[in-house]
Design brief:
Radius of gyration: 31 Å
Oligomer: single chain
Helix content: 10-25%
Strand content: 25-35%
Distance between the termini: 28 Å
Largest sheet: 9 strands, antiparallel
Structural class: alpha+beta
Number of strands: 36
Shape: elongated
């Protein structure tokens, strides 16, 4: 039941009585301070250990399982996450509002984090109180308050600290009433907090006072907690008042510890004064228990904004240009990686501007000012509209404009205009096609003048290879030398005798797959890309730069050597096969461990392989092995759910979500139901990657049949051969 005793994260050493160890804390990146959703990309405190699983039932559920009008949600309004920013990371605890400007938490959170040797923190840089965070990954409805890191009142022996908040959080989120009642064995309790720094959760099932209820100066309770629950209120369900301050747990017994509120009130001058200023609470009837509670394994958590910002940052980082980082910061100024992007912009993109003592007021900037001046035109084509609607594409266009202004002499204004109409605008509104065409043009504009014409024995035939306005070449790559272009073609188009090579006026060599009708080029490009016959960054060009054509008969491509490798076991239970040698290429299938592959080429850490069904693609070489591995076969039966006849998409009853990643923030791919049999592909923490074998999951009510994804192991009975 008690999860925290199994955690392998930071454990703070408490100097008070040795009866119990204080509640563990978990560390997060400094860069995510100020965000509602904290990042654990790099564990704070010098620990990168992955958390282990709880064994058996874990009775701590999301507060979102209950309606906003429920007594649980109302009590939770006054509870928030306390983020302590140190020089070695962020350590979140829990705190709750006790009056207009004060919150209550554990001493070992503030200022005691500095006494923790494992945390390795030497200073507290900032503290903030995050209120209203009830749905994982969703920031709407939340509010953050700055907290003074110096306690108004603190006592290490009772492990409590009263902190002052700048502002009045009680005006919006209310306060919790404090009780000095002596606890009795078996009293029903609730513990509300932010375990693991996540959205608010409540421990209610099997949550009560222990027997005996008191041991020395500690209140013993059986409510489940996790690191991050330090400072949570222990609420008497009958009184609906706080009777204890949770702070610790025993590693020997299934019991947790709190400081009785009576002991804190006796010691505190601040809380006693607040108690006198607080009107008596209005009694409320106990909530009626649900005779057949059904846990909700499917909280509706989808953080689309965070996913968009993750993707924008990845693109900016891969391209490594100022416009990419600027576009990311403009759109995602509060994202977890924004400090890194801002640092890059400050150091690489613009000089530091020192403000004048008396700045001249400037007129406000209109929110709808376009990134590119020509975007105000009313006669934009589809490609131009796509550029104006995307900060990323607008940034690329700006970069190209700068490259064009400094272009070499051999590139004329007319050739730039021809490229714009025949190549870029041929992409229509396809942003991927536009980006590839513009990036390629930037490389052309930054290149040196064309080299001297090749010698006759190279097989290049000079000429004019510009197509008519009704046709275009499908260009799959552009390389700086003929040998590189040939190597690319051998990897992608082994055995295809129709590949042609054209030398461009900028010295690059284009690899052309075929010539198509311009009107049907977009459809043909999409067809070839989806079939993995050409790379995803292929595009159509009329060949205005082509000055020579290579005679393929002059130097036949050598037959590449091959070897056999197998897919090794890995954490995800499968290996993605991509259309190119990088994670920037989409994957078109997934193959299981033990699959036999024929390697026909390589590029860096990527192998070009032929699958058993004859298809060709790219896989990550470190996930291959020379000998066939032993693959453990596991299956599971779905248990612990309500019948599919009680299916309710709103409450999550009657199904188990299959998600894109091992987290409730993953998008839902499919569903499985009570009694279904599934194949277990991989296991990670308290999640399993599964695919349907038999049962109702073969025709899911929502989602895609046969989709592989992650599901909670709590509802799976797993066996392996």
């Amino acid at each position: 039941m008690r999860f925290m005793a199994m955690m392998t994260v930071l454990s703070l050493t408490y100097s008070a009585p040795p009866l119990a160890a204080q509640q563990d804390l978990v560390g997060f990146d400094r860069a995510s301070f100020g965000n509602v959703v904290l990042s654990r990309k790099q564990a704070a405190g010098g620990s990168d250990v992955e958390l282990e699983l709880a064994v058996g039932s874990y009775n701590n559920e999301s507060i979102r399982n209950y309606s906003p009008a429920s007594v649980f949600s109302k009590m939770g309004h006054s509870v928030g996450r306390l983020d302590i920013l140190t020089d070695n990371g962020i350590f979140p605890c829990t705190a709750f509002i006790v009056d207009r400007k004060h919150i209550l938490t554990n001493y070992h959170c503030v200022p005691g984090i500095l006494d923790n040797e494992k945390a390795k923190a030497t200073r507290i840089d900032a503290v903030q109180f995050v209120a209203g965070y009830t749905q994982q990954g969703v920031t709407e409805g939340t509010k953050t308050y700055t907290v003074s890191p110096t306690p108004v009142e603190a006592h290490q022996d009772l492990d409590f600290a009263v902190l002052e908040v700048l502002g009045d959080p009680s005006a919006q989120y209310g306060t919790l009433k404090l009780a000095s009642n002596a606890p009795a064995p078996g009293d029903p309790y609730w513990v509300i907090g932010h375990p693991m720094g996540e959205a608010q959760r409540i421990s209610r099932e099997k949550c009560k006072a222990n027997s005996p209820a008191l041991s020395g100066e500690r209140l013993l309770h059986t409510c489940d907690t996790l690191p991050g629950n330090s400072g949570s209120p222990v609420i008497d369900a009958s009184l609906q008042m706080v009777v204890g301050l949770h702070h610790a747990g025993s590693k020997r017994d299934s019991v947790n510890f709190a400081i009785p509120m009576a002991a804190i009130l006796e010691r505190s001058n601040v809380l006693e004064a607040a108690l006198r200023d607080t009107p008596a609470p209005t009694p409320q009837p106990d909530p009626k228990p649900n005779p057949n509670p059904v846990p909700n394994p499917n909280p509706p958590v989808i953080d689309e904004e965070a996913a968009l910002c993750d993707a924008l940052y990845k693109e900016a980082k891969e391209y490594g240009q100022c416009f990419g980082y600027k576009a990311y910061v403009e759109t995602c100024g509060k994202h977890r990686f924004a400090p890194f992007a801002k640092a890059y912009i400050s150091e690489q993109c613009a000089p530091v501007v020192t403000p004048t003592p008396d700045p001249v007021p400037q007129p406000p900037v209109q929110a709808n000012t376009p990134r590119r001046s020509w975007c105000t035109s009313s006669r934009l084509n589809a490609t131009e509209q796509a550029i104006c609607g995307s900060d990323y594409l607008a940034g690329l266009d700006e970069e190209m404009e700068q490259a064009y202004a400094a272009r070499p002499s051999h590139i004329s204004a007319s050739s730039q205009g021809q490229w714009r109409t025949s190549t870029r605008d041929a992409c229509g509104a396809d942003s991927g096609c536009i980006a590839s065409a513009v990036i390629d043009r930037i490389a052309v504009l930054k290149s040196s003048p064309a080299p001297t014409p090749p010698q006759q024995n190279t097989g290049m035939v000079p000429g004019n290879y510009t197509l008519s306005s009704s046709q275009c070449y499908i260009v799959t790559a552009s390389r700086t030398s003929l040998s590189e272009a040939q190597a690319f073609a051998r990897q992608w188009f082994s055995g295809n005798s129709g590949i042609r090579y054209f030398q461009s006026s900028n010295g690059y060599y284009a690899v052309v797959y075929q010539t198509v009708s311009k009107s049907g080029s977009e459809w043909e490009l999409n067809r070839l890309k989806s079939a993995n016959l050409i790379p995803n960054d292929s595009y159509c060009s009329t060949g205005t730069r082509f000055i020579s054509k290579y005679r393929t008969s002059a130097a036949p491509a050598p037959t590449p050597s091959t070897r056999t490798l197998y897919v090794d076991n890995n954490n995800d239970g499968g290996l993605n096969v991509r259309s190119g040698p990088s994670t920037s290429y989409n994957y078109f299938t997934e193959i299981d461990p033990g699959t036999k592959l024929t390697v026909i080429g390589a590029s860096g850490k990527w192998s070009n392989v032929r699958l058993p069904d004859g298809r060709v693609g790219w896989v990550y070489t470190p996930l291959l092995t020379s000998s066939k591995p032993y693959v453990r076969q596991c299956q599971a039966r779905v248990t612990g759910l309500a019948s599919i006849s009680q299916y309710n998409s709103r409450t999550g009853a009657g199904f188990l979500a299959v998600r894109s990643k091992p987290s409730t923030s993953g998008s839902k791919l499919s569903e499985v139901y009570q009694g279904d049999t599934v194949r277990v592909i991989a296991q990670k923490n308290n999640w399993a990657r599964i695919e349907c074998v038999s049962g109702s999951c073969r025709s899911p009510i929502s989602g895609t049949a046969g989709a592989r994804g992650w599901a909670s192991k709590k509802y799976l009975s797993i066996w392996c051969q």
